[in-house]
Design brief:
Elements: H1 3-19, H2 53-73, E1 79-94, E2 98-111, E3 114-117, E4 121-128, E5 136-140, H3 145-148, H4 166-176, H5 185-190, E6 194-198, H6 208-218, H7 231-247, E7 256-261, H8 263-274, E8 278-284, H9 302-308, H10 331-336, E9 343-348, H11 356-372, E10 392-397, H12 407-420
Parallel strand pairs: 5-6, 5-7, 7-8, 8-9, 9-10
Antiparallel strand pairs: 1-2, 2-3, 2-4, 4-6
The structure holds beta-D-galactopyranuronic acid.
C-alpha cells in the first residue's frame, strides 16, 4: 500500500473514534461519579470478601482473570511457544547511543487440542550502549516498526508505506501529537532505558475482517465462539512474546514496562494483569476496555466501542452494550490485578471520550488491593496532583487525545521514580 493511502486508512481509523467525537467538554478535575463496583476486595460471585493476601492471590486473582476473559477480552491460548527465527545486530551505535537489534519471530499456540501458528513478525530493540540490562520499555503502536524506530537498517518492505514520513508525518503529529508515530528514542536511551517494538498488526491485524479471520485462525480449538479472544487480548499476548524473545539466553532479570497509547493502552494493562514478568505499565488514554470504568461512564460506551471495533473484544462484551450495569466485573479489577506493580494512567482534559474521571474512579477502586500488599497505591485526591512516585500514578494534562511533547517526559519521570531508586 502506498504511503498516502495508508495514511488515509490510519487517520480514518483513528478519527472513527475519539478524534471525530471530541467534544468541547472538559474533564472535571475533582473525582466525580459513583465508586467502582463490586468492590475489589468485597464479595465476588460465590466468594466471600477477601481478608488476606493469600486469599487475594489464591482465590480472587484467578476468579477475576477468568471473569475478564469470559466477559470482555476472550481467552488467551492454553499454551504457546515462541520461536526466534533470526536475531541480528543492525547497528552498534544507533539513535545517539543505542545498540539496535532485530528479531524475526513466530509463535505456536494451542487452544484445547488444536495448535496453530502466527504469521512471522519482527521486533526491534534498542539498548543503551554499555547497559545490557537496562529496563526495557515494550512499545506497540498503530505504526509499522520502521516508523517507531526510523533507521535505515530497520526492515521496511519494498514500497511499503507507514504512518509517517514527509508531509504525512506533519499531518499525523499535528492531529495526534509529536510522539504519536515515533517515540523520543534518543531521550529514552539517554535516561538509561532500552526500548523494544513490534507492530502487532503483523499477526493480529487491526482491521475488522482480516483481524477477525486471523484471531479465529489462531484460536480454532476454542469451543465457545462468543469467548474467542479479540485483538486487544492478542496484542496483550504480544507483550509476553516480546519478553519471551528478550529472555532467551539471558540469565539476568530485567525490568519490563508495557507501554501503550489508546487501544494499545488497553492491551498494555491487560498484558501486565496476566504476565507477572511485567514490572510496570504506562497506559496512556486507554479509555473504554482499558482503565475507564464501564459503568456510569462519560465518553465511549460499550455499545459504541463494540460497534466500531468488532474485532477488539470477545463477542461476550456485546452482551453489555446498553447494559453495563449487569457486568459482573469492571475495569478497576483489571488495575487491581497489576498490584503492587507501578502503573501510570495518562489522560488529557479534553479527551472526555476516554473518560479521565472513569479512569480515576477505577484507580480509587483498585487502591485497596495495593494497600493489601503494603504498597502505597494512589497518592492523590484530585485528578491534577501529579505524583510520579506513587504506585498508581495518575497523569492529566491539558489538550486532547494523542502523545504530545509533555507526555514522554512525564512517562520517564514516573519510570525514574520507580526504577532509579532500585
Ligand atoms: C478510538 C476508540 C478508543 C481508542 C482510540 C485509539 O477510536 O474509540 O477506544 O482506543 O480509538 O486507539 O486511538
Amino acid at each position: 500500500m502506498k504511503r498516502w493511502s495508508l495514511l488515509v486508512v490510519v487517520i480514518a481509523a483513528l478519527s472513527a473514534g475519539s478524534c471525530a467525537k471530541l467534544t468541547l467538554a472538559w474533564a472535571d478535575l475533582k473525582p466525580d461519579g459513583p465508586a467502582a463496583r463490586p468492590e475489589a476486595l468485597g464479595a465476588f460471585q460465590s466468594q466471600a470478601p477477601i481478608t488476606s493476601l493469600e486469599e487475594w492471590t489464591g482465590l480472587r486473582q484467578p476468579a477475576l482473570k477468568e471473569a475478564l476473559q469470559a466477559n470482555i477480552y476472550g481467552y488467551f491460548p492454553d499454551s504457546y511457544q515462541l520461536t526466534v527465527l533470526d536475531h541480528v545486530v543492525l547497528d552498534e551505535n544507533a539513535f545517539g547511543g543505542g545498540r539496535l537489534e532485530e528479531y524475526k519471530l513466530r509463535a505456536q499456540l494451542r487452544f484445547g487440542e488444536t495448535t496453530s501458528e502466527t504469521e512471522i513478525f519482527y521486533m526491534d530493540v534498542v539498548t543503551p550502549v554499555g547497559a545490557p540490562n537496562a529496563p526495557v520499555i515494550l512499545i506497540q503502536t498503530f505504526c509499522p516498526r520502521w516508523d517507531t524506530f526510523p533507521h535505515p537498517a530497520v526492515y521496511r518492505p519494498e514500497g511499503a508505506g507507514g504512518c509517517g514520513g514527509g508531509p504525512a508525518t506533519g499531518v499525523m503529529t499535528y492531529v495526534f501529537g509529536r510522539y504519536i508515530a515515533t517515540p523520543p528514542t534518543e531521550m529514552i536511551l539517554a535516561r538509561g532505558y532500552a526500548a523494544a517494538t513490534i507492530y502487532p498488526s503483523e499477526f493480529a491485524p487491526d482491521r475488522k475482517d482480516e483481524g477477525l479471520a486471523a484471531l479465529k485462525q489462531m484460536s480454532e480449538g476454542l469451543a465457545p465462539e462468543k469467548q474467542r479472544w479479540g485483538a486487544i487480548a492478542a496484542w496483550a499476548w504480544g507483550y509476553s512474546l516480546m519478553i519471551d524473545a528478550l529472555e532467551q539466553n539471558v540469565e539476568t532479570h530485567r525490568d519490563y514496562i508495557s507501554w501503550g497509547h489508546s487501544r494499545y493502552g488497553k492491551s498494555a494493562l491487560l498484558a501486565a494483569a496476566f504476565d507477572d514478568r511485567i514490572s510496570a505499565v504506562i497506559s496512556h488514554q486507554s479509555g473504554t476496555g482499558g482503565a475507564s470504568l464501564n459503568r456510569q461512564k462519560k465518553g465511549e460506551s460499550v455499545k459504541e466501542i463494540v460497534d466500531a471495533f468488532p474485532h477488539w473484544f470477545a463477542q461476550a462484551y456485546e452482551n453489555y452494550a446498553d447494559g453495563e450495569e449487569a457486568m459482573p466485573i469492571d475495569q478497576h479489577h483489571l488495575l487491581a490485578l497489576i498490584a503492587p506493580r507501578p502503573v501510570l494512567l495518562g489522560n488529557a482534559r479534553r479527551d472526555v471520550w476516554s473518560d479521565p474521571n472513569g479512569a480515576f474512579r477505577a484507580a480509587v477502586g483498585a487502591d485497596p488491593v495495593y494497600k493489601l500488599y503494603g504498597a502505597q497505591g494512589l497518592d492523590q485526591g484530585r485528578l491534577d496532583i501529579w505524583a510520579p512516585g506513587a504506585d498508581i500514578a495518575y497523569w492529566i494534562r491539558p489538550g486532547t487525545h494523542g502523545v504530545v511533547k509533555e507526555d514522554w517526559p512525564a512517562f520517564l519521570e514516573f519510570l525514574d521514580a520507580h526504577f532509579l531508586k532500585k
